[in-house]
Amino acid sequence: MAHRSFSRYLPWLITAPAALLTWPVSTWASAGFGVLFLMGWLDFHQTKQAVRRNYPLTGRLRYGLEYIRPEIRQYFLEDDEEKLPFSRNQRAMVYARSKVQNDKRGFGSIKDMYHPKAEWITHSLQPTELDPADFRITVGAHQCHQPYALSLLNISGMSFGALSPNAIKALNKGAALGQFAHDTGEGSISRYHREPGGDLIWQIASGYFGCRTADGQFDPVRFAEQARSPQVKMIEVKLSQGAKPGHGGVLPKAKVSPEIAEARGVPMGQDCVSPARHSAFSNPLGLVDFVGQLRELSGGKPVGIKLCVGHPAEWFSLVKAMVQTGQTPDFIVVDGSEGGTGAAPIEFADHVGMPLRDGLRLVHNTLVGAGLRDRIKIGASGKVISAFDMARCLALGADWCNSARGFMFALGCIQSRSCHTDHCPTGVATQDPIRQRAVVVTDKAERVYYFHANTLHALADLLGAAGLQKPGDITPQHLMVRNAQGQARTLASSLDTLAPGELMREAAVPQTLPSPFDGFWHASQAQHWGVPAASPKQPA
Questions:
Q1: 102 lies in some domain
Q2: 207, 272 contact by CB (below 8 A)
């Protein structure tokens, strides 16, 4: 590790002896090497650009190419756009907003609005003005002693261990400045979450990190100790994540540092295992009981679940358990298969899990049809980065959005996709103490704050252009998409919609429901995770 870190500084460090050695031969060459050494020294000590800080002198090449990028983009940089997790234009937008720079574009759209995937929001001849300071929703109002006023944009779950200590501190300090929430990820609450004092959503996953017994089971006493901290505003039970749903994980013992062991409550010298499934419950009824237990142990704080939708019948089983018991989570975060992670098997990242648009609509529609929607708030995560992404999610039924890589870009992530190697060039996704020094907490926290504030301001402009009075007014009728024939249609025309309580009426009076609600709904049971043996539309 040390020799890799040292090698990054060699191009800068060799300029000093080069200047001394060339002095007797050529004063001009010596002066040139001296100037290069001075430039590298300035790069090493400046705090604004992570790549230059980690790669003195040579890091300037990246910013030079970025400067001339508008001229070469059309010919070299756009060809691979569809293969990237986020487009370069989106990343540039985040950089501009986080640095409070001009994020406008000249000469109109670069997108083909006749492309089959084209979509847009309809505008009004009577625009309105919305104040983004009002963009908050109350979570837990129906059954919590401590409901929380949540921002419409928050930091999605990213664990300490996946991200560096400085990255965690910068995210949390930015959240504190902007008064929005920071999801801890399944790695639990570390000292770096606590230090800045920003609001936390504590994520509890299958490893029960931060609230586990010695053998990895859930520990209610340890949970209550942490959950009752004033900094913890909500608790989120993660059932699955979009990037690798149904897959566990292992942090090798070599990577379990004393700080990670302290935060997660695991011993040093052993692999840190995240099982693929929870042990605290085994069926839908057990899950809703577990949610109620966490709410009581936390002192009445909002408790919800996070999932990437898989088998529809299993999701319906959970809804039936809510109906049968009358116990509901305070919120549900729907993660799409587009979501990212530090490392995931390729097959899982590409081919497992329901995309956000489909999963979000299914969850929203089911809760409406079951008569539960007014008791449960819905969050959306998975490739959410722009104000339009947020508007689309709100139209599909979300109450708020979470973003992970959007805030990572604000920290300085350049999408090198080396998160799993511990060699992140910007110090964001690494535990290398030398690399992580590139993340200067004070500077990056301000960028996190400004990205949040400017994105909500852009959302207010977008919704105002549509003539709406508040974010909750947007519906699928306000979005236009192209169908397979290239015709422009409202998004509402391509979506199944249930009326309030329709699934409950269907239980008494059989009738045909919109697919995939009909067969899957009947196949599901609250007592177990129901999976039909065959497709409901096909003969057995």
A1: no
A2: yes
Determine the structural domain holding residue 400 and report its residue range: 132-247+277-482
Q: Are 149 and 63 part of one and the same domain?
A: no
Tokens of 353: 């899990």
User: CA 457, 461, 466, 467 torsion: positive or negative?
Assistant: positive
Whether residue 539 lies inside any domain: the answer is no
How many domains is the chain built from? 2
The residue among 466, 482, 498 that closes a domain is 482
Chain-centroid distance, C-alpha 189:
17
| Percent of the chain whose pLDDT exceeds 90 | 49
pLDDT tens track for 111-159? 677 777 789 999 999 999 999 999 999 999 889 999 999 999 999 999 9
Question: What's the pLDDT tens digit per position in 31-74?
Answer: 776 777 787 777 777 777 777 777 776 767 666 655 545 443 43
SS3 of 270-301: CCEEECCCCCCCCCHHHHHHHHHHHHHHCCCC
What are the start-end ranges of the E strands in 311-373? 331-335
20, 143: one domain: no
195 burial type by CB count under 10 A (0-12 exposed, 13-18 middle, 19+ buried) = middle
Dihedral sign, Cα of residue 453, residue 381, residue 427, residue 56: negative
- What residues contact 262, with CB distance under 8 A and at least 6 apart? 190, 191
492 belongs to a structural domain: no
Whether residue 220 is found in the same domain as residue 367? yes
In a domain, 126, yes or no: no
Out of 17, 44, 79, a domain closes at 79
Amino acid identity for residue 320 in this structure: K
> How far apart are alpha carbons 421 and 166 in whole angstroms?
18
Amino acid at 403: S
SS3 230: coil
Q: What is the CATH number of the domain that holds 228?
A: 3.20.20.70
Q: Residue 372 gets which letter from DSSP?
A: -
- Residue 424 corresponds to which amino acid? C
Shared-domain flag, residues 308 and 409: yes
d(CA 531, CA 517): 13
